[in-house]
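WARN no homologs supplied; continuing
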Amino acid sequence: TEEKSTTIIPSSPPISTSSITNNNLTRLYKYSQETEIKSYVDPNGTIHQYRQSTERALLAQRKIL
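OK structure emitted
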C-alpha cells in the first residue's frame, strides 16, 4: 500500500502534463503566487506599504504564460 502525495494549488488553472513534468509546473505555480511587502516613506514622512510579486514570481509567471 503505497501512498502518493499530491500538492493541490487551488488558485491555478488546470495543468496539462504533456509538455512539462507536473512537478516543475506545480513549483512554478507556487512561485508565481509569491508576494512580498515593501514599504517606503514619502516626502511628508508617511509610511506606505504595498505588496508586489517577488522576482521569482515574475520569472515563474513569464515561464507559465
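Residues 22-64 form one domain.
OK
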